[in-house]
Specification:
With 431 residues, this protein is α/β, with parallel strands linked by helices. It folds into two domains: 2-133, 3-Layer(aba) Sandwich (Rossmann fold); 154-423, pyruvate-formate lyase- activating enzyme. Helix content is 43%, strand content 16%. The strands form three sheets. A six-stranded parallel β-sheet has the order 2-1-3-4-5-6, sandwiched between helices. Helix 6 (113-125) links the parallel strand 5 and strand 6. Helix 8 packs parallel to helix 9 (212-227) and helix 13 runs parallel beside helix 15 (373-387). The longest helix has 25 residues, at 406-430. It is globular, with a radius of gyration of 22 Å. The N and C termini lie far apart (50 Å). Bound molecules: cobalamin (B12) and iron/sulfur cluster. Iron/sulfur cluster binds next to loops.
């Protein structure tokens, strides 16, 4: 069979241009292609990079969906089905809303593709496709030999999948189930050696973890990565970098930067949703510890929790600049379908938009406690503009210039500054 795998794209205009400049995507399609038996001819299409060619020959089209890309995925699916081509939908959104997705597909894969995709392909070959394929926790993860890089600069890689935590706003456990699986370190090391780009981005949910076994696994892996001369980026939970010994390993093995989910500076929010220790001093000590070892910090923060007020946002901004964070990702709390957060806000009658196009994490789709939806979106935009202002870039770069890390991030900070100015000018012009 000729099988086309598609990752739809929801950003248009300026954002599409930005994505072309710096393409970064997960490994979903490359990963799914490894679950398809080798006799099939597989084509991968990232819509962010190339338009979907509806005339290219295909016997089966498999589309992955995030909530924000769901509507776009449905439009693509409808056009293929009009041509009589079978379409299957999967991924976090289709898994959370299978009945909705089924209106646009011949079959919907719920949850982990490791268990559903091979089964679907077998059923298509035997002409007995079922409408829904249900989630099972996989027993092992497939190898990722010769994985294609989205750009010359960085390649995404996965060494483990699953997370031991269950944060209220996250879809991992509620959609995919409670599991944590590691691949064989030797296999991942072999694959990393095949990669041509100088940087590796680990997409693992629970990178490094906290158990002794997990730490041994990652230590072996990272020592091998450093021997290839490549640098790496990862995303990890705060408790992981509390340990000096772990930070030493990261520094020794060429960690360029870590994306850290700080989520909130407000301890009352953390009691409600993230279950992690929160204090400004503790956060600052973590950032300093990483900076002292030459590791950049990309801080991820969520605004709109029940205890957030405008003051929380001001304090967060002040913290990010004082801590001289290389980058900050400010997002609005978003109740993705399938999460405990969605259920709670729905039961409280607080969700105001179910247009999935709005689920960008930059727009408020529910009624927060201490903001109007519009004022929360405006506060987020203001925080972003201030964090990426030239004055803030200058203040944050002082430490970076001394130790040599901000220069790695200067271009992306300046580009973000320009991007925000252009977006703002376009919005003002449109009003
Ligand atoms: C790396 C990453 C990114 C990268 C790359 C994004 C990408 N498009 O993949 C970056 C930083 C760019 C990013 C951005 C965003 N991300 Co992100 N990201 C991830 C992360 C950590 C890993 C993705 C990955 O490669 N996973 C590994 C692959 C193998 O897993 P998978 O895609 O889920 O696929 C499995 C199954 O879903 C299934 N499957 C998937 N598709 C299909 C299709 C078929 C036909 C079948 C049979 C099976 C199947 O099979 C696979 C194996 O089991 C995930 C969390 C996670 N663990 O998945 C979040 C995650 C996907 N991101 C999320 C979000 C919200 C976003 C943003 C909207 C955030 C923002 N504010 O911008 C943007 C959207 C960008 C976009 N348009 O794609 C959410 C999505 C929730 C939702 N319901 O939509 C997730 C799940 C995080 C979370 N914990 O909630 N992200
Ligand atoms: S947000 Fe991160 S730590 Fe929390 S459950 Fe999701 S993947 Fe795990």
């Amino acid at each position: 069979m000729k099988i086309t795998l598609i990752h739809p794209f929801h950003y248009f205009g300026l954002n599409r241009f930005a994505h072309r400049l710096m393409p970064l995507h997960g490994i979903t399609l490359a990963y799914l292609s490894r679950l398809i038996p080798p006799q099939h001819d597989v084509r991968i299409v990232y819509e962010a990079r190339e338009p979907v060619d509806y005339t290219a020959p295909a016997d089966l089209v498999a589309i992955t969906t995030l909530t924000v890309t769901a509507n776009r995925a449905y439009r693509i699916a409808d056009r293929y089905r009009q041509r009589g081509i079978k379409v299957i939908l999967g991924g976090p959104h289709a898994s959370a809303r299978p009945t909705e997705a089924k209106q646009h597909a011949d079959a919907v894969a719920i949850g982990n593709g490791e268990t559903t995709l091979p089964h679907i392909i077998r059923d298509i070959e035997n002409n007995c496709l079922k409408p829904f394929y249900h989630n099972y926790v996989p027993e092992r993860l497939p190898p990722l030999e010769n994985i294609a890089a989205p750009n010359r600069w960085c390649t995404s890689m996965m060494a483990s999948r699953g997370c031991e935590m269950n944060c209220e706003f996250c879809s991992m456990q509620s959609i995919f189930g409670k599991f944590y699986l590691q691949r064989r370190a030797s296999e991942v090391i072999r694959e990393i050696k095949q990669v041509a780009s100088p940087n590796i981005f680990f997409v693992d949910d629970n990178f490094f973890g906290t158990s002794r076994k997990t730490r041994e696994f990652y230590s072996e892996l990272l020592e091998a990565v450093s021997q290839t001369g490549k640098n790496w980026y990862g995303q990890c939970r705060l408790p992981v970098v509390e340990d000096e010994a772990v930070v030493d390993i990261f520094a020794r093995t060429n960690c360029n930067a870590l994306l850290i989910g700080f989520e909130s500076l407000n301890p009352e929010n953390s009691r409600q949703v993230t279950k992690q220790t929160v204090s400004r001093d503790y956060y600052l000590s973590v950032v300093r510890k990483l900076h002292n070892r030459g590791i950049g910090v990309v801080g991820s923060f969520i605004f709109g929790f029940d205890h957030d007020t405008p003051d929380t946002i001001n304090r967060t901004l002040e913290f990010c600049i004082t801590a001289k964070m290389e980058l900050a990702l400010f997002t609005i709390l978003t109740p993705f379908p399938g999460t405990a957060l969605f259920e709670r806000l729905e039961s409280e009658g607080r969700i105001i938009s179910k247009n999935w196009d709005d689920y960008t994490m930059e727009k408020c789709v529910f009624r927060p406690r201490h903001f109007s939806p519009e004022s929360l979106t405006a506060a987020l935009n203001r925080a972003e503009r201030e964090f990426f202002s030239m004055r803030s870039i200058y203040r944050r770069s002082q430490l970076g210039m001394k130790y040599g890390y901000l220069e790695k991030f200067l271009a992306v900070n300046v580009l973000r500054n320009i991007g925000l100015k252009v977006t703002n000018a376009l919005k003002t012009g449109a009003r």
